[in-house]
C-alpha cells in the first residue's frame, strides 16, 4: 500500500531532533543560515511565474500579518478558506531549507500551481532575478529599526534554529553591524526603497498598517488588481487584528513543536505594537543607536516613525 505523504506539521514533528541552531554563512556579503547557504544555487535559480506575488520583509517586520491580509484578499475575506493550512504551507518561504522530512520552500512551491504567493526575507540584491525579469508584483513591508530589533531579539530567543542571540545589549550591537540572519536592516530597507519605482514594488510601513489598517489593506488590494467590497475590507481588518491572529492556529505558528519554536521562552506573536522599543532600550543605548542610525541612513529619506 502506498504510504500517505506526511503533513507539514507531522514532518516538522518528525524532524525535531535534527533541528538545531544553524550557524550563519556569508552569501555575497549577507549572513544566511547555513542550510540556505548550502542550497544557494537552487534558490537563486528559482524561476517564478509572472503571476506570482512576492512578499518581502526584513525578519519580524510584519511578514505573517501581510501574508494573512493577502490570502484573505485573494479569498474575498473567507476566514475558513484561509485556515486550510498553516501560513508556511499557504505562502511558502522561498529560501528556507530544513532537514528532511520537512519540505523546503522550493519543495512546497513545486507542488503549487501559479499564481502563488511567496515569502522572502532576502535583501533585494539576492532576490532571484526571475522575479524582476518576469515583472512579478512585490509587496515590501518595513518596520522602524528599534521595534524591529526588539522583535527580532525575542524571536531569536525562541527560534531554536537561529543563532543564540545572547544578551540584549550585545544583540543591539549585532543589529547595528548587520551581523544577524539576512544581514543589515539598513541595507535591506534602503535596497527595496531605492528600487521601488523602477521595479514596481509596493512599499508599505508597519506603522501605517497599525495606524490605519483599512487604508493600507485597500492599497494592497489595488496593487493586486483586485476589487473587494468595503465590508469585506473591514472584515479583513478584524480578522488580521493582532488579537484575532494571535488566536488563529493557522497563523500563530503554534503548530511548530518546541525543538523549533519554544514559545515558553517568547510567543511568536508577542506584542505587535509600535513603540515597544522604549521598554528595552536604555537612554544610553538609544543615543548610541540614534547616532549610528543617522550615519547609516544619511543617503536616504525613508519616513520611518518610531511612535504613532
Automatic annotation (TrEMBL):
Q: What EC number(s) would the UniProt record show?
A: 2.8.2.-
The GO terms this record gives for MF are: sulfotransferase activity
| An example Gene Ontology CC term for this record | cytoplasm
Name a single GO biological process: xenobiotic metabolic process
Annotated coiled-coil positions are none
Q: Which SUPFAM superfamilies match?
A: P-loop containing nucleoside triphosphate hydrolases (SSF52540)
UniProt-annotated location(s): Cytoplasm
The alphabetical list of record keywords is: Catecholamine metabolism, Cytoplasm, Transferase
Enzyme class, first EC level, given as a word: transferase
| Record's keyword annotation contains Cell cycle | no
Q: Which residues form the Sulfotransferase domain?
A: 50-300
For this protein, the record's Pfam families field holds:
Sulfotransfer_1 (PF00685)
Which family does the UniProt entry place this protein in?
A: Belongs to the sulfotransferase 1 family.
| UniProt name for this protein | Sulfotransferase
Amino acid at each position: 500500500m502506498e504510504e500517505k505523504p506526511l503533513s507539514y506539521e507531522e514532518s516538522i514533528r518528525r524532524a525535531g531532533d535534527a533541528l538545531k541552531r544553524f550557524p550563519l554563512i556569508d552569501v555575497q556579503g549577507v549572513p544566511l543560515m547555513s542550510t540556505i547557504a548550502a542550497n544557494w544555487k537552487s534558490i537563486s535559480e528559482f524561476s517564478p511565474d509572472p503571476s506570482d506575488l512576492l512578499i518581502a520583509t526584513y525578519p519580524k517586520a510584519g511578514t505573517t500579518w501581510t501574508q494573512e491580509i493577502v490570502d484573505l484578499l485573494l479569498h474575498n475575506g473567507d476566514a475558513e478558506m484561509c485556515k486550510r493550512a498553516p501560513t508556511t504551507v499557504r505562502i511558502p518561504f522561498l529560501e528556507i531549507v530544513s532537514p528532511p522530512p520537512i519540505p523546503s520552500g522550493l519543495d512546497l512551491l513545486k507542488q503549487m500551481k501559479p499564481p502563488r504567493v511567496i515569502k522572502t526575507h532576502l535583501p533585494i540584491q539576492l532576490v532571484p532575478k526571475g522575479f524582476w525579469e518576469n515583472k512579478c508584483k512585490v509587496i515590501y513591508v518595513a518596520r522602524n529599526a528599534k521595534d524591529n530589533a526588539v522583535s527580532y531579539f525575542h524571536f531569536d530567543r525562541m527560534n531554536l534554529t537561529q543563532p543564540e542571540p545572547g544578551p540584549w545589549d550585545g544583540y543591539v550591537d549585532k543589529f547595528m553591524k548587520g551581523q544577524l540572519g539576512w544581514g543589515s536592516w539598513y541595507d535591506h530597507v534602503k535596497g527595496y526603497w531605492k528600487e521601488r519605482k523602477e521595479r514596481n514594488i509596493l512599499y508599505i510601513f508597519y506603522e501605517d498598517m497599525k495606524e490605519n489598517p483599512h487604508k493600507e489593506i485597500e492599497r494592497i488590494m489595488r496593487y493586486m488588481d483586485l476589487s473587494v467590497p468595503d465590508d469585506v475590507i473591514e472584515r479583513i481588518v478584524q480578522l488580521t487584528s493582532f488579537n484575532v491572529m494571535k488566536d488563529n492556529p493557522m497563523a500563530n505558528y503554534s503548530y511548530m513543536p518546541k525543538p523549533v519554536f519554544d514559545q515558553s521562552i517568547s510567543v511568536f506573536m508577542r506584542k505587535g505594537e509600535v513603540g515597544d522599543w522604549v521598554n528595552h532600550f536604555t537612554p544610553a543605548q538609544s543615543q548610541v543607536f540614534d547616532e549610528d542610525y543617522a550615519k547609516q541612513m544619511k543617503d536616504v529619506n525613508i519616513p520611518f516613525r518610531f511612535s504613532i
